[in-house]
Amino acid sequence: MRIDHLVLLVLAAVAAPVGWAQTATGIWEGKVGGNAQQTLRIDLDTGLASLNSGSPFAMTVVKSDDPLAIQFDLTISGRTLRFTGRRSESEITGSIANRALTLTRLPGDTAHLAGRQRYPFPQVDSGDAKAVATARAALVELIRKQEIPGLSVAVARKGKILWSEGFGLADVEHGTPVTPLTRFRVGSVSKVLTAAGIGRLVEQGKLDLDAPIRRYVPDFPAKPWPITTRQLAAHTAGIRHYNSAEAIGPKGAPHFARVRLGLALFENDPLLFEPGTSYSHSSYGWSLISAVMEGASRQEFLSFMRSSVFEPLGLHSIVPDHVDAIVPHRTRFYVKEGPGRPLENAPYVDLSYVWAGGGYLATAEDLVRFGAAHLQPGFFEQRTLDLLFKGQSVIPEDKRISVGVGWRIQTDSEGRRILHHAGASVGGRAMLLLYPDSGITVAILSNTLADFGPADAQRIGSLFVAN
Predict the structure, then answer these.
(1) Do 197 and 86 belong together in one domain?
(2) Which of 1-10, 373-382, 398-407, 456-465 has the lowest mean pLDDT?
(3) What are residue 169's phi and psi, to 5 degrees?
(4) φ, ψ for residue 424 (rounded to 5)?
(5) CB atoms within 10 A of CB 391
(6) Shortest CA distance to 350 belongs to which of 261, 274, 223?
(7) Inside any domain, residue 138
(8) Contact at 8 Å (CB) between 458 and 444?
(9) What is the reported pLDDT for 36?
(10) CATH number for the domain harbouring residue 457
């Protein structure tokens, strides 16, 4: 077996004995392989390793009574290989796969592998360094108080990433750290993603927001009053929201192969009120929007969103959360019954019944890039931005917030205009916020239903607005 042609995979979380951790710390690096040598780096402070500065992965430390003995296991192409060696002050000398390997201690200021070797943090401008430090401290405290297993944050100014960082674990069982590549469930932030697709169809002249939706979905049951896409997007159409029993997927119908099939969950229910006369948040209303978009575009909804929004913007991490698919860098999802209670795996949920309103995965970086596409004309025409951000309704419980086409429109405590949307899902919480007049976009994502929202994103965003 040629080690220089092998791919390292995650084996398990580190479980280093206390004595070993006290005597062996720091970051070490060495060359492995034959003619095509590769660089192996191990981080004894975090229990992570990487090959050729690739994505960090966990290694398994083998306990030894000898404080100078160093043993750890790596999985290589399905085969477990053990490194066995001894430590001195500046070197670890031993062998792996019958090949000699010497690891040299790197300087103490070398970035830990948990900080993402292959995808380094953006260079922080001196003017933003204080803002990053203050924002990081605030998030660390939020994570501590709420016992959040994993969280990712990104901040951009006019599309340029200023700060991107992962905290905690994407997979608690295997010790896999969150990095800026980790994909999280974004819940109702999916609605503003879908709103971008609405804008594209309006620009193309294929969708009239004020036409009855039965023009596009002719087999949707007739109601006492006509319903328009504009009303659906502003939550004023009277379509009910899913109930608590449906929040983890409709019973007896775990997967819908087509958007139209999912409408059966609510299409025969009576409207809550005459469309246009009241407000009631409804993710099912956005499921109906996705059917309207299919009728208008003559294209399957997920395919349309990919080809018309995500691919043109280069947002490759934003994908539907297909539970039966292998999705690289998808986090595990967790729940807690209360503070101090054990962390548990979130229950199984198939989001095919609510793609448009809550079914997407994304990284924090791609969310802020998506937000940046709304800061000025370019991807969208100015008339489309005016459409998306024109208030159509008001949220009754907080009349300071109006609703455009998906987006929430508000001002912060300093009177600055902000645009935002939060998302809550099984095993996920998401927040996307824009300061359109300053060009700042903020995204925060977690792999449990944490208690953060617009106020937290404002506190972070305002630090960068001030610079």
Answers:
(1) no
(2) 1-10
(3) -120, 135
(4) -130, 135
(5) 13
(6) 261
(7) no
(8) no
(9) 61
(10) 3.40.710.10
Could you give the CA distance from residue 156 to residue 367 in angstroms, rounded to a whole number?
A: 10
User: Reading across the β-sheet that carries 393-394, which strands appear in turn?
Assistant: 176-177, 160-171, 150-157, 440-446, 428-435, 417-425, 408-411, 402-403, 393-394
Q: What is the DSSP code (8-state) at residue 75? A: E
Whether 108 and 206 map to the same domain: the answer is: no
Residue type for position 269:
D
Q: Strand (E) positions, 256-352?
A: 319-320, 334-335, 344-345
Domain end point (choices 82, 114, 146) = 114
Look at residue 141 and tell me if it is in a domain: no
Contact yes or no for 76/3 (Cβ under 8 A) = yes
Nearest alpha-carbon partner for 41 in 110, 88, 89, 138? 110
Please spell the DSSP secondary structure of 215-250, one letter per residue.
GT-TTSPP-SS--BHHHHHTT-S-PPPP-GGGTT--
Residues 6+ apart with CB under 8 A from 37: 4, 31
Distance (Å, rounded) from C-alpha 376 to C-alpha 59? Answer: 46
Q: Which of 201, 212, 235 lies closest to 404 in space, CA to CA? A: 235
Task: Report DSSP state, residue 306.
Answer: I
Q: Tokens 């300061």 appear where?
A: 435
Angle at 264 between CA 260 and CA 269, to 5 degrees: 130
Q: 210 by DSSP, 3-state: which?
A: coil
What's the token pair of residue 128? 């933003």
Question: Is 194 found in the same domain as 110?
Answer: no
Q: Which residue has the higher pLDDT, 330 or 80?
A: 330
In which domain, by residue range, is 374 found?
184-465
Split into its structural domains, the chain has a count of 2
333 and 454 in a single domain? The answer is: yes
Q: Is residue 122 part of a domain?
A: no
The DSSP call for residue 440 is: E
Average pLDDT of every residue of the chain: 87
pLDDT of residue 241 exceeding 60: yes
Could you read off the pLDDT of 363-388 as tens digits, one per residue?
A: 999 999 999 999 999 999 999 999 99
3-state secondary structure of 326: coil
User: Which pairs with CB-CB distance under 8 Å and at least 24 residues apart come from 413-417?
Assistant: 413/458, 414/462, 416/462, 416/465
Residue type, 41: R
Final residue belonging to a domain, choices 63, 91, 114: 114
Looking at the predicted structure, is the pLDDT value of residue 194 above 60?
A: yes
What would the two tokens of residue 38 be?
């590769």
- CA distances (Å), origin 425, targets 285, 372, 453: 17, 24, 13
* Chain segment 2-16, per-residue pLDDT in tens: 333 333 322 222 333
How many of the other CB atoms lie within 10 Å of CB of 347?
Answer: 12
Task: Give the model's confidence band at 35: pLDDT under 50 very low, under 70 low, under 90 confident, else very high.
Answer: low
Q: Which residues, in sequence order, are bridge partners of residue 411? A: 417
Sheet strands side by side (includes 360-362)? 184-185, 360-362, 319-320
